[in-house]
Backbone:
């Protein structure tokens, strides 16, 4: 299986309380396994507040809905041994 690397990393975002914010990270190969999103070292699951999806097979997106002050912190995207933070 090819080593999946991060082609385009996360970018820092500034948003207002109550807004949605989207983070995206592009990887080198489709169908990447061992992918994880974290906020402040807490793994995120796909639910009504966090929408995790993959576009065109290589672009992994995380949308945080109606952010609050508690959502301030570092977002981490990991695929295998590679990480990107914002």
Residues:
């Amino acid at each position: 299986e090819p080593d999946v690397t991060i082609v385009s990393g996360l970018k820092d975002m500034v948003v207002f309380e109550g807004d949605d914010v989207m983070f995206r990270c592009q990887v080198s190969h489709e169908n990447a396994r061992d992918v994880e999103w974290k906020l402040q070292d807490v793994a995120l699951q796909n639910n009504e507040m966090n929408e995790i999806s993959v576009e065109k097979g290589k672009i992994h997106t995380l949308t945080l809905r109606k952010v609050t002050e508690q959502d301030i912190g570092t977002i981490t995207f990991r695929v295998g041994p590679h990480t990107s933070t914002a």
